[in-house]
Amino acid sequence: MTRRTGPETIRRAAWPARLLTLAVLPALLPALFLSVLAVPGARAAESAPTVSLSKKEAGKGGEITVSGKGWRGEALLMLLICGQATPERGVIGGTNSCANGAGRAVTTDEKGAFSKRLPVAEPPEPCPCVVHVATVTGEQASADAAFTVAGHPTAELPRRTGGGKLAVLAATRLEGDSSLLTWFGAPPARRLVFTVGNLGPAPVEDPVFEVGTAHGVYAPQWEERQWRGTVAPGARARIALPVELSAGAHGDYQISLRYGKKVLAEQPWGVGRPWGVTLFWVLLCLVVPAAVFRIGMAVVDRIRPRTGGAHRTGGAHRTAGARPGPAVSKGLPRRTTPVARTARSAAAADADATTAVLPWFTPDSAPSENRPRPTTKGQA
Fold first, then answer.
1. Separation CA 112–CA 141 (nearest Å)
2. What is the Cα–Cα distance from 319 to 339, expressed in whole angstroms?
3. Number of neighbouring beta carbons within 10 Å of residue 232
4. What DSSP character marks residue 94?
5. Each residue of 146-165: pLDDT tens digit?
6. How far apart (Å, rounded) are the C-alpha atoms in residues 331 and 318?
7. Cα angle, residue 110 at apex, residues 109 and 112 outer, rounded to 5°
8. Can you name the residues that pair with 53 across neighbouring β-strands?
């Protein structure tokens, strides 16, 4: 006779297994509960190292004790006092904002704890300040603790950019031409044109760039240039910033573009010599001496002495005995006299002059007629 298995038979067979499970479960619950709590705690300790200070404020030259827990075992750490930083935002300017000369190094123990004395020094940036602890080798980890350096200047933190990150996507170029005034020494001017893209998760509003100009071996001189606009995440924008050199500048220049602490691009610029200035000085050196010479000659001609008889004219100043000649007018042709008439007139004038000058000679009283005639020998 065959025995059939029904629901009643299955329930009777499951009772021993249920009783065994109920007996073992209370013993397993504490171990399961501890394992669930221990794993998150260990992970939290590994991912969130902590830093504590013996003092929250101290002056330059003092000393504080820095302690930490939850670090990686036997890890080399660096301890620094940094300015322009908070535990929430971290060290904004990087290690350039820290007093690196007064920093200390420490190695954690097997459990990831440490304790080290740190001298107080003034950072190069104003407070708010922090004690910055970071790993030197291996997996990167850092933690900050708020600290106040007594007597150190305090300033507001720079405006948060919102997580945006700008990068130059295309080569930069200089647009614009020189005018005629630049040829005579006016300041050369161009526009620095480039395309940027926002690689961050947040938009960048009204970014402030820095444009630097360098000549030769000298360091660039930076000037701030703000661009009005917004670059959305993943978007790009074409930006043009004005660039201007000093008056009379010429030669090879290097134009640099910087955003934040990072140099984004560099562009060479060759500026021609202002030959108009050279031409002006050459003409000045020629015209001024010529003008001085003309003025000097005019002064000499005016103050030099004049001769008395050479420039006198008129009948009142003529010498006695001189015959008046025909008057000659300026600009009119001179009248000519026939040669024969001129000779006769001259002879008649000489005869009249002789008669007038020697009145004592008369025909009756000539010396040859009053003298006795010579006689010949033998005459009586």
1. 12
2. 26
3. 13
4. G
5. 999 999 999 988 766 555 68
6. 23
7. 65
8. 66
